[in-house]
Specification:
The protein has 420 residues and is an alpha+beta fold. 49% of the residues lie in helices and 20% in strands. It contains twelve helices and eleven strands. The strands form three sheets. Strands 6, 7, 8, 9 and 10 form a five-stranded antiparallel beta sheet that branches. A four-stranded antiparallel beta sheet has the order 1-2-4-3. The protein starts with a strand and ends with a strand.
Length: 420
Amino acid sequence: MALVEGCRHALEISIPAAEVENETTRVAADVQKRAKLPGFRPGKAPSSLIRKQFAGDIRQQVLENLIPKTLQKQFEAENLNVVGTPDISDVHFHEGEPLHFKAEFEVVPNIELGEYHGIEVAYSDPEVTEEDVAKRIEELREQKAEYLNVDPRPLDNGDFAVVALESVSGVEGEPVKQEEMVLEIGGADTFDAFTENLRGLSPEDEKEFEVTYPENYGAARLAGKTVKFHATVRGVRKKELPEINDEFAQDLGDYRNLEELRDAVRKNILAQRQFEAQQAAKDKIVEALVDQHGFAVPETFVDRQIRTRVEQSLRAMNADGMDLKSLKLDWAKVKETQRDKAVREVKASLLLARIAEREAIHATRDEVDKEVERLARMQREPVAALRIKFEKDGTLGRIAHHIQTEKTLTFLFEQARKTA
């Protein structure tokens, strides 16, 4: 076996003439059974005539039968973990002679692991202050707010305007239209253009005005655009907030008093911050692992990872309302810009899999079952039916792989040398 480049290797294979002739005879006999030739009943045409009449078909079938089978035997003999489909070239196939061909293919690299215990990473346990708890409870209070209609009057700061809104110009495709949009006049989350143009209007008043959206606005079809809207005020509402007391706590869940709510909020904030801090630390550990290990990765894996990244971006753009039909991707340019990140991600995946193998880290049946049950609850499907579906489409394997990866990351985090 010869190394071509990176993970790409080449093999020159020769299949003995006797084996080629046996396969040719077998294929010709199979063709003979089905062939319909003038003057002969099905299956009765002479073999010599069949070989002459269907020479091209027989040749192609012999190649399709012998090459993959022979390659697989060679791969197994040399213990090669091949990825993708081999490229076949230099085929030499002549009657009475051995079959020669060249195969080029990529293999999963044999990674020599360096030291992965005790990787230094910046990490300190997060803290939760009383101010953090008070802020979260205030957020819960806002969620319990009631918006009450008030008698018609001009809108002022602090009021919540109920507005029917429709774009007149500035947006491609279908107009932006909402029959009942609620905006806080003067609110931190309300664009100044809405506040300035709606303030002073009363229910049933109408007005047209322009709103300029920032380049980084969440909805892609509005980002960076100046849109002209026609607005009709439908009503005026005032926000009423509940008092923060034991009754408020009891209304939120299984809490006897406000103190129990505060304790639960504190624990939730701490758990969330610990998760985020540990995820950031794990990301740094993976980056350090990749930096410490230099090895080539199969282009097949890199291409697959680039496609995954692009598909994720397209889904996000579609969710933001962008029309993907008008989007033209230059795959060569995309591959060039995404390649470095994709290579690092593939390396990280291979390294984590290698560490999991060495440390005997794997997903248990119970862990996979619990995840399937969680997804079944989310999708409101029977667990057994969803499991069968996941087994067929490969999702079950992906779930197990994800669990294995997370357990490996946790292992590396626990083994890491943490510095403040």
